[in-house]
Amino acid sequence: MQIISMPKDGDKIHPRRAVSIMSSEEVKSGKKSHWEELDIKGPVRNLSPAIWKLSHLTSLFLNDNQLQRIPPDISRLRNLFLLDLSSNKLRSLPAELGDLYNLRELLLNNNCLRSLPYELGKLFQLHCLGLIGNPLSPDIMTMYNKGTPRLLTYFLDNLALTTPEPPERQWIKISDPENTGSPTAIFSVMSYNILCDKYATRQMYGYCPPWALNWEYRRNIIFKEILHYNADIISLQEVETCEYNNFFVPELKMHGYEGVFSPKSRAKHMIEDDKRHVDGCAIFWKTSKFTLIKEHLIEFNQIAMENNEGSEHMLNRVTTKDNIGIAVLLQTNDGLFEPPQGGFSQQNPKQHMLAATAHMHWDPEFSDVKLIQTVIFCHELKRICDESTQSLRPRTISGAPSSPEIPQMPMIVCGDLNSLPESGVVEYLTSGKVSTSHEDFRDLKYTKTLSNFSHRLREIDGQDDPNIITHPFKLNSSYDDNTRHCLEYSNHTFEFKGIIDYIFYTRSQMRNLAVLSGIDSNWFIENNILGCPHPNIPSDHIPLVSEYQLFPPNYQPQSPSPPNALGSQYPMSMQHSHRGNSSPSFHHLNSHMPFQHSGMANGYHPLFSNSHSHQSRGFGGPRRSSPITNSNSTPPIGMGSLSMPMNGRR
C-alpha cells in the first residue's frame, strides 16, 4: 500500500488533492501538520483498521485499487464530505454507509455493484452520486439518470426502519396541591407546534422518509398524542386554516373540546382558496371545565404600524412580519373542581382565567422583532385583562363597582417563541422587564416607539425609567430551574436543537404541580437519529404539558412560587424522574399514566394503526425485512446547539 503524501516532479495535481509540503525549517521548529484528506493508491486489496480511527477526515480517496469490500467500520468517519471508491472491484456496500450523513459526494463508478443498500437514502445532504460503470438494474439506472435526489428519495421511502421506540416521557412532580379550604381546581395545559403541512418538505427535512412527512400520516399521530395527553387547555401553533375547520374542530368536539383560531395576518389579503392554507394559532378547552367568555386576536404588525412613531426599523422590520397571538377569556365550570380536603363541600366559585398563545418570528437575525412582538403581546394582554376585570367586577344596584379593588387575572401564556432561555424574550417575560439597550435589540433605535407600550405598563409598578420596558405580570416558566434538567430541547432538527417553546403561568394565582419531560437524548444518539420529524415523531417540535392548581380569588398562597432565576442554563444531562407504584400519584394526571411519546400503553403505537403499508419493496436484490418502528433524528455532533434554526419557514 502506498499513501500518497507529496507529488513528484511532472505529476499532474488534481485540484481536489493539492498538498502543501512543510519546509525543513518548519519541521525543525515543531510546526504541527494538519491534514483532513487521505489518498491511498495501490493496487490495494485490504485496508488497515487504523484508517477507520481517523475520524477527522473530510475526504477519503480509495479509488483505483483492488478493493472487494468496505467494512462497516467506515461509518466511524462521520466527518467525511467526499468518499471516492471508484475503479475497484466492489460487489456490495455496507448499509452503514448511510450513517455518513455529512457526505456531499459519493463516487462508486466502475465497480461490480449489482445492488445498492437502501440506507443510502439517509444521505440527505448528498449532491453527487457516481454509479457509472456498474451492472445495476435498468430501473435503478433510470431513476439515477433523472437525478441523484430522485434515487435517494426512492431508497429512503422504501427503507425498513428498525429503530426502537423512544423511551416513555416521564412526569416530573413539582409539588402537591395546596389545601385552600375551598374546592380544588386542577387543570393541565399543552402547547404544541404541530408543523404545518406546507413547511414539511423534503428540502427542509431530507432525513425524514417522504411518506412520514405526509400530512394525513402525521395528523393521525398528532391527534392521538393530543387525546393521549388529555390536557384541559390545548394551544396549537402552525395549524392550517382548512385543517382547523375540517379536522380539528369536528374531531375534538367529539371529545368534549371547543376552540378558537386565527390565521396569520397575510390571510386578510388573499383570495378564499389561498386563505385555506394559511397557518395560525388555535386554543381548545374542555367544555366540561371551562366556558368561553370572549376571544381576542393580537396582530403584531398592525399594532406596530399604529405605534411606529416614524421608526424606519419598526416599519421595515416589525410591520413586515405577520405573526399573531390569540387569547381567550375563560370561566371555570363545576367540572373543574374537586371537593376540598376534609370532605366539606361548598359551592364552587366561578373564576375567570386568560389563556393566550403566540407564534413569534423565526429568524435569529431578527431578535429585535421577536422581542418587540413579545412586548406588544404583553401590552395587549394587559389591556385585555384590564377590560375584562372592569367588565366582570360585581356592581351595586346603582351600577357602580361594589369594590374599588380590581382582582388580578390568572393567566397562562404559551407558544412557540422561537427564542432560547437566555434570550431577551424570556428575560422580559420572567423578570417583568428588559433594557432598551439589550443586545437582542441589535443596537437599533426603538426607545421612542417602545415608550408607547412601556409607559402604560410602568404605571402599575411605579417605574419611570424610559430605558426599561416592563410588564405587570408575575410570570414563571413551567420548566423552571427545578425542572429544566428534564427538558433539553423542544425543537429538534438536524441543524438545531434547543428550547424555543414555553408555558408561563402567573405564580401568584397558580401552583405548578407537574411537567412532562422531554425525550431522552441518549435515544437519539444511540440510534443515530438525525432530527424530527420522523415516522413516530410527527413534528419537529415536541408537545409541552404541565399541570396547575388554580387558587380561589383573593387567596394568599401559603408557600408562593418564587420567581424564575435569570441566566440559568439548561444542563445537557437527562435525568428522568421515573414514576412507579411507590411514587406519589399526581392529583389529576395519574388517570392517564404512563405516557409513551407518540404512542399508547401496552406497546400500542399509532404508527401501526395507520393503513399505509411500507413493506420491503424495490430493486437490487434481497432486503432486510423489519417492522416500521420509531426513529427520530438527532446528530450526535452539536447536541444542545444554541444557534437558532435557519429554516426560513416561520
> In angstroms, what separates the terminal alpha carbons?
53 Å
Enumerate the spans where pLDDT stays under 50 for 5 or more consecutive residues: 1-6, 402-406, 455-460, 566-643
What structural class do the secondary elements suggest?
Answer: alpha+beta
Beta-strand fraction estimate = 15-25%
The total of beta strands comes to: 24
Descriptive account of the structure:
- The protein has helices spanning 24-28, 138-145, 148-157, 210-213, 215-229, 241-253, 272-275, 300-306, 312-318, 367-392, 424-431, 447-461, 521-526, 606-609; strands at residues 2-3, 37-41, 59-61, 82-84, 105-107, 128-130, 171-173, 184-193, 233-240, 257-263, 279-286, 290-299, 324-332, 337-338, 352-359, 411-416, 433-435, 468-470, 475-477, 491-492, 497-498, 501-506, 510-516, 544-550.
- The protein is elongated, with a radius of gyration of 29 Å.
- The relative contact order is 0.13.
- It contains 14 helices and 24 strands.
- Mean pLDDT is 82; it is low at 1-6, 402-406, 455-460 and 566-643.
Any descriptors?
650 residues, alpha+beta, 8-stranded mixed β-sheet, 6-stranded mixed β-sheet, 14 helices
Outline:
The chain contains 14 helices and 24 strands.
Q: How are the SSEs ordered, and which strands pair?
A:
Blueprint: E1 2-3, H1 24-28, E2 37-41, E3 59-61, E4 82-84, E5 105-107, E6 128-130, H2 138-145, H3 148-157, E7 171-173, E8 184-193, H4 210-213, H5 215-229, E9 233-240, H6 241-253, E10 257-263, H7 272-275, E11 279-286, E12 290-299, H8 300-306, H9 312-318, E13 324-332, E14 337-338, E15 352-359, H10 367-392, E16 411-416, H11 424-431, E17 433-435, H12 447-461, E18 468-470, E19 475-477, E20 491-492, E21 497-498, E22 501-506, E23 510-516, H13 521-526, E24 544-550, H14 606-609
Parallel strand pairs: 2-3, 3-4, 4-5, 5-6, 8-9, 15-16
Antiparallel strand pairs: 1-2, 7-23, 8-14, 8-24, 9-11, 10-11, 12-13, 13-15, 16-22, 17-18, 19-22, 20-21, 23-24
Helix pairs in contact: 2-3, 10-11, 10-12
